[in-house]
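Subject: Interface between my chains keeps coming out wrong

I've been trying for a while to get a sensible model of this assembly. When I model each chain on its own everything looks fine, but I need the whole thing in one frame so I can look at the contacts. Pasting all components below, labels as-is. Any help appreciated, I'm running out of ideas.
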Amino acid sequence: MNAVTTVPPAAIAAEPIVRLDGIQRSFGLVQALRGVSLSLKGGHALALVGESGCGKTTCARIIARMDTPTGGEMLYRGRNITRTGTAAEEKAYRRAVQMVFQDPFASLNPVFSVQHHLARPLALYGHARSKAEQVQGVADLLNWVGLEPALTAHKFPHELSGGQRQRVNIARALAVQPDVLVADEPTSMLDVSIRLGILELLARIKQERQLALLYITHDIATAAHVAEEVIVMFAGQMVEWGDTLSVIGDARHPYTQLLLSAVPDPDRPFVAGDSARFLGHAEEVRRLSRPSSTEVNQVGSNHFVRALGAVS
Ligand SMILES: Nc1ncnc2c1ncn2[C@@H]1O[C@H](COP(=O)(O)OP(=O)(O)OP(=O)(O)O)[C@@H](O)[C@H]1O
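Reply #2:
Try treating it as a single job with all components included. I did that and got this:
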């Protein structure tokens, strides 16, 4: 096991599209992010995993320019964008980085049709100038996300299922031809039966469009469906990260092990008292994981784990 002095970024890439280096974000006394470093590169997915409040959404909002870090640096295609740039630079970045939100019901305007939702960004960013180009562009986008244009384009959000709405949201994000897609818990409000379809769609988009995908989830089991690399976060800090298969298959940090042990095993029957034992164990793991250590150990070619701090 090699100890490394600085925190190596997750998803080490020759030419990342977006890179965060030691990002901090405090809200008063709350340290939402404590030195998060990561790289997002084309055709590659990174999963950010952790429980509620660990800082996942804050990280996504910073990447999408909806929030500003209180420390650290942010780079876009090698250019330092930590401070606000010119209006043109900001507009270009906001086009390049698109978000898909958790709630597919709230993210579409109920008074507009699917056609309107998709034609608008196409027109705004000059990807469809005439009416005919808009109709064709919307049809292409709907086909891309697995929706039949003739059956979908004229519909309003309330006429669609949750999964169909999320596909429209993904199509809308794709309309501006982004480089980066940030998907914040994109399936957590959907029926279990349709979640895998959305994850497979994201994985296909990443591959075929060579997009950089940041997939945010509290469910570590789904990370392997989508992402080549994973970061496990606890209390604003990266505690374990690297190749998804290595992190999931050979988890070293007790908090990662806790997340994995919470994944239901259909082959194991439920035993009375299991949940109480699990909750007690979970509290103990959180107590051990909370103290911060700067020591990071390399346990695989791309697999890093933060050492536990001293518990008083
Ligand atoms: N605008 C804010 N003002 C004050 N505290 C905030 C704000 N935004 C986030 N926080 C705090 O920062 C921490 C991280 O929150 P964040 O929403 O990033 O976590 P999360 O992992 O995305 O959780 P969830 O899955 O519930 O969305 C939490 O303690 C939260 O209360």
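Reply #3:
Confirming on my end. The two ends are 26 Å apart (CA to CA).
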